[in-house]
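USER:
Working in pairs, take the chain set out below, taking as long as you need, and write a paragraph about the fold.
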Amino acid sequence: MSIKVLVVDDSALIREVLTRMLSRDGDIEVVGTATDPIDAREKIKVLNPDVVTLDIEMPNMNGLQFLEKLMRLRPTPVVMVSTLTTKGASETLLALELGAVDFVAKPSAEFAGGIEVFGAGLRDKIRAAARSDVRGRAAGRAEPAKVPIKTAAAPEGSLIAIGASTGGVEAIRAVLSQLPADCPPVVIAQHMPAGFTARFAARLDELCALKVVEAEDRLPLLPGHAYVARGDYHLRVERTSGQLKARLTQDELESGHRPSVDVLFGSVARTVGPMAVGAILTGMGRDGARGLKQMRDAGAFTVGQSQASALVYGMPRVAFEEGAVVEQAPVEAIAGRLVTALMRLRSAA
């Protein structure tokens, strides 16, 4: 069964490029295109697509307004097609908060790796979106907000590591917003292109008790702070002069990604060992399973997001199957599991 896609964009050129790119492998069929949300609304009713690609800037109705209505009235997997600007990054993150599964940056003349790389990435995101549990997530959105944990009471030298991909923007927010201001340093690898991670960190900073920043090379990792891997850079943790620091590099892609969750988790296993706790959240593929297994083998407590609460149960599933996960938990319980493990560390210290 091919994946049926509706392409929504006011640019005829972008509609043509997306249609051509999506049709390349034969498992995705563009069943229609729409020039604006009004047009899209009618075509969604008639064509019943599995996935919709949606531009943000459109005539007649902004893409975000349309997305909000769509998620309320007819939850459908949506992949945003976004411009690589500061405004575009902010609106894209808002789209993910409203329920979009993922996004791609519009290809530009200087697009790294060219149009073929863009097309392959787009097709992968459409496949992940088609398998995502958007309806389940929409139904669960009415849950009351969980009360943040008051204190982490973690021993010095401890660390929290989190990895995610598709659906991770919301999952990371759910975990971080419950962590207390006195928790140990948090390092985060979320699959996201360059140009979006600074805005993602700033958005998390607005919503959390922690100070959240985009990681910088050789930055000391401080308690009460969270560090988001910069798009197109690997983030590692190293110890120099007794202090934990961030290291950023642009060496080869790992597990198909940069930043790679495997790279981050592997460095945490080597540098922090049993003083670390780790969580692998929603995402497609297997990035993070190997690194999380290294963390567990080094004595760290590890948790995986449960299938029922994961938008895409790919990365957590592989990690669980490979014995990398001590336990699985719904996303709203993960912060509590991490803090409990840290407190056990303290009592054992």
The chain is about 40% helix and 20% strand. The chain has two domains: 3-140, 159-348. The mean pLDDT is 91.
